[in-house]
Amino acid sequence: MLALLAGTQSTGGTLDVSLTVAPGSHVLDNVQTLRLVITNPHQIQTATRGDNGFTIALDLDATGSSTSLIVDGLDASGAIIATGAADVSRRRLTAKIVIYMAAPNTIGAAPLALAAPRDQIGLAALSYGAVLAGGRDAAGAPSDAIAI
User: Is residue 106 exposed (0-12), middle (13-18) or buried (19+ Cβ within 10 Å)?
Assistant: First the structure.
């Protein structure tokens, strides 16, 4: 639905950003305009719904700093009916980022789940999410699984 091509100047890197929602959610169905806010440096871009969804293309300098991408879905009256955000690095990279969208101030089921139940997992925060590593599987055997 969203094709954000954020090329980093002097590097050729591309951030491919797409949107996802909770299973069975229709929160994006009535979105007519997407507003993308980049926090560092502060920029605002908008796109109206086309035949293939929304497309925003922009260039970002590869400064090595981090920034947040805030995506708001607006209905025909301009009210925010869906929102999502992700922290990203402005390093020289090519990456795919998926932003979870939901109605403001709500929570819902994640679109993905861990492959198998585990406990005693090692957890570390990343600038763009978290890493879950190891632990023990349902039978109590050590696991070498990792999820980011």
Answer: exposed
Q: What DSSP letter does each residue of 91-131 carry, written as one string? A: SS--EEEEEE-BSTT-----S---SS-EES-EEEEETTEEE
Would you say the pTM of this structure is higher than 0.85?
no
| C-alpha separations of 48 from 1, 26, 63, 77, 138 in Å | 11, 18, 29, 13, 47
- Cα(31)–Cα(28) distance, rounded to whole angstroms? 5
Domains of the chain: 2-100 (2.60.40), 118-147 (no CATH)
Tokens of 115: 């492959």
Q: What is the pLDDT of residues 83-116, one digit of tens each?
A: 999 888 766 667 778 889 999 998 877 777 767 7
pLDDT at 60 over 90: no
**How far is Cα 145 from Cα 26, in angstroms, rounded to an integer?**
32
